[in-house]
Write a structure and sequence with these properties.
The chain has 402 residues and is of the alpha/beta class. The protein folds into 3 domains: 48 residues, no CATH class; 119 residues, abc type-2 transporter like fold (3-Layer(aba) Sandwich); 181 residues, no CATH class. The protein is built from 14 helices and 7 strands. Strand 6, helix 6 and strand 7 form a beta-alpha-beta unit.
Length: 402
Amino acid sequence: MIHGVSEPERDVIMDAPLDRLGNKRFVLPIVGIIGVFCVLALVLYPMLHAAPKDVPFAIVNLDEGVPTREGMSGVGDSVVSAMTSTPSPIAWTQVDDQAALDQAMDNNDYYGAIILPATLTQDQLAASSGGAPAPHIQLIINQGKNATLASAMQSSLTAALQQKGLTVDVTVIHAVDIGGGALGSLLLILPALIMMPVVSIMIFFILRPPRGAPRQVRAITYIKQLVSTVVMSALVAGAVILMATWVGSLTISAGTLFLFLWLAAFCVMTLFLGALDIAAPLGGLVIFVIFACGLSSAVLAPEMLPSFWRTWFYPWVPQHFIGGGVSSIVSMGDGMWNGSSGPLAITAGVGIVLMLVAVAIGSRGRKPQLTPPPDEKPDASDTSDAPNQAEKPDQDPETTNK
């Protein structure tokens, strides 16, 4: 029971917002179903239509060939020509030497590479004569760029090269070995992406200025929002790390990942709050678009996304940078401030700019209640606004009896 309010009055207070909607309140469940359908459709469509396309791979031809009447001839040139001319989801780039390839791999430029050895032609001739096994080539797989796509390319390339009569020696670099199987990395990303909008909306409804509040009041309120965001984003990051280590039993660099996820959560939540402070519908639209259309960018490599998602969403959605930052920490050994931290900081800057705009133009928050509602009875003890009434003189009991 609400203090000072009876049960019937409490029911009236609780039902008042729905009563104001009238018969429209019966449409709310339908609107909710449509909203959930739209979110799930936008989240699942890129995942259900994922297909590799233009996957960057390198090929290094070190084959020295053998002399012939027409000059030097090598199997390596034939292999390169066949691999690069055959239609496939791989975009081949020929690299000159091993040193250039090592530098490109350190920069995470390719998902992998094929290295044709210097003795490839000689080994092929020896194998053709039946006196030696099939020649060996090296396949390098870079899981640091995206472990899921790199592993898929490893399977398809190994099968294709074996069909050409070659023995494939696979070398995996920047391996993602944190445990948890295929869901290990997702456990570090998805819980944070789900908690960020929820916590942002809670902060907004708890700390928002009244409608028509002075500029100074609005500024102080938004500063309180930022302080709360610092605290709550740390709790979000801590919850993710606890879930990953205790529930998932992942072997991770907990301190570095905590700091990065703290930074990421603060930046994204600041953007959400800035949009909500200008107008709640605008903030809801921003949260909806970023969450629904950007979630797949944290899970899938850009080469797996449909063209529309890859062109219009992947370059700017924060999930892209959160997933990239987590991947660089667990696979490349990078620190909290890595290639994804700068774009996330820009996201926070956009949110702060939106808050400044909200300070300047005001926001549609709660309207302060200056007068009691019409149905509310004035307090009998409050006689400040009552008209002055003449005091009745005290009557003598005997006169009264008469």
